[in-house]
């Protein structure tokens, strides 16, 4: 077979087949996989921004339309639930129709839902537009999107790229929250909704022209691969496999313990803090922009905490890690009512840093336990565990608003969430390790 310049070099400096490699006359261009990863990163940042606005809308919508916080929280809960429930099927749609088409349509759906909210006059329209449309669109760009891109485009550096794309969610929160809170505070909520819609539209050309479904589409091998990988045919049975994996995992104890702990994780992060921290701080006289900035800082330390948790997961018992994470999170939530004030004080800064480090630290050990117990189906099972995460978030988004309406304060919600974290810590310790860790469960046919 004729040697071509595209064949990868071995560490010894020779091409496959033993022929000596010519000295390159100019610097090679970066592999196309990195531009695909960059577009994916920007898209996930946008998805995080779309998900960050509802928490800023609770007080403005309550003031303008006199809707109860429970009603507004219900729309947010629909959004969060669909975000999670869409994830296991989003990868199946990408296998069937391609990454580029699915993501472009998802962005268009988000832009439509966010843009039309400026014309709404009834609460059911909020549920339909922001709950259903934005929930479905953003759910199509959740972790399944990142996993599909890294699985197709990267052989080397796959773990690094996966970690970076996972951290993109925190980066999106950091970028969008202060901007959107400033817009809401200065120009009210409608310009903020339009900003989200325009951001979704702006990403579509990047996705359509720079994102490709598979390296074979541009005649390349995946980054780090030693040979060309043909593009697989459309997978028509991927959704069926996802359902079969769920049915198999649902018959085991570890699945329900993992789903239960991750539901509490979602309840105490996306459902509680991301949705209700800003209005809770505003109840104590803190300006909305200051509260939103604190929430954005959580995203900064979230990146560091996630990377550190991945390092710990390779070295320590994952069950004990989860127990420590949930226990510390619950303790911090118990103290939060004492820290809320009209200004940002040092104890509140300490809480933000501490809580940020713990925000998604639970993800690496949860993925590791799914892989340990379910082998080749571990990623699919994690998709369903992630769905439980979002269902938990949805419940607390609604119940938190209801509690605020009933009690006039968020304090009972903070204390109840702390107790739930203590329960999650105990559940994590109950998960049994496999008797033979090297032996994986067979994949679902």
TrEMBL record:
Keywords annotated in UniProt: Membrane, Transmembrane, Transmembrane helix
Keyword Transferase: no
Annotated organism of origin: Streptomyces sirii
Membrane topology summary: Multi-pass membrane protein
SUPFAM superfamilies registered for this protein in UniProt: MFS general substrate transporter
Record-given protein name: MFS transporter
Keyword Repeat included in the entry's annotation: no
One Pfam family linked to the record: MFS_1
Xref: InterPro entries: MFS (IPR011701), MFS_dom (IPR020846), MFS_trans_sf (IPR036259), Proton-linked_MCT (IPR050327)
PROSITE patterns associated with the record: MFS
Cellular localization per UniProt: Cell membrane
Segments traversing the membrane: 34-58, 70-90, 102-122, 128-148, 160-183, 189-211, 245-269, 289-311, 323-341, 347-369, 381-401, 413-431
Region (Disordered): 1-28
Domain Major facilitator superfamily (MFS) profile, residue spans: 35-436
Main localization, broad class: membrane
């Amino acid at each position: 077979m004729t040697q071509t310049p595209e064949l990868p070099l071995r560490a010894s400096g020779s091409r496959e087949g033993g022929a000596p490699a010519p000295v390159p006359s100019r610097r090679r261009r970066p592999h196309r996989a990195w531009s695909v990863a960059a577009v994916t990163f920007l898209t996930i940042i946008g998805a995080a921004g779309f998900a960050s606005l509802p928490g800023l809308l609770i007080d403005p919508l309550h003031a303008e339309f006199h809707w109860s916080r429970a009603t507004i929280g219900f729309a947010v809960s629909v959004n969060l639930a669909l975000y999670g429930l869409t994830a296991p099927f989003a990868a199946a749609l990408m296998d069937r129709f391609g990454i580029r088409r699915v993501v472009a349509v998802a962005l268009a759906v988000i832009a439509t839902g966010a843009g039309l909210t400026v014309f709404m006059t009834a609460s059911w329209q909020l549920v339909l537009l922001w709950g259903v449309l934005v929930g479905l669109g953003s759910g199509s760009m959740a972790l399944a999107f990142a996993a599909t891109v890294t699985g197709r485009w990267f052989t080397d550096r796959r773990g690094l790229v996966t970690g970076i794309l996972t951290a993109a969610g925190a980066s999106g929160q950091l970028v969008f929250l202060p901007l959107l809170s400033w817009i809401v505070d200065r120009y009210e909520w409608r310009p903020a909704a339009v900003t989200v819609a325009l951001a979704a539209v702006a990403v579509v050309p990047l996705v359509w022209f720079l994102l490709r479904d598979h390296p074979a589409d541009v005649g390349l091998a995946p980054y780090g691969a030693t040979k060309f990988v043909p593009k697989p045919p459309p997978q028509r049975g991927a959704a069926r496999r996802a359902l079969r994996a769920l049915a198999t995992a649902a018959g085991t104890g570890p699945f329900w313990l993992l789903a239960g702990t991750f539901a509490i994780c979602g309840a105490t992060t996306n459902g509680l803090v991301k949705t209700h921290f800003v209005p809770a701080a505003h109840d104590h006289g803190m300006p909305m922009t200051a509260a939103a900035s604190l929430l954005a800082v959580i995203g900064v330390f979230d990146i560091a905490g996630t990377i550190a948790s991945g390092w710990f997961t390779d070295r320590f018992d994952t069950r004990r890690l989860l127990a420590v994470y949930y226990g510390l999170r619950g303790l911090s939530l118990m103290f939060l009512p004492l820290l809320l004030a009209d200004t940002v004080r040092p104890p509140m800064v300490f809480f933000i840093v501490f809580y940020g480090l713990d925000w998604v630290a639970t993800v690496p050990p949860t993925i590791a336990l799914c892989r340990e117990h379910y082998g080749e189906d571990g990623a699919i099972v994690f998709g369903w565990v992630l769905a439980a995460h979002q269902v938990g978030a949805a419940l607390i988004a609604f119940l938190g608003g209801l509690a605020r309406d009933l009690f006039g304060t968020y304090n009972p919600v903070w204390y109840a969430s702390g107790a739930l974290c203590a329960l999650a810590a105990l559940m994590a310790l109950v998960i049994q390790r496999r008797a033979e860790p090297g032996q994986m469960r067979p994949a679902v046919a």
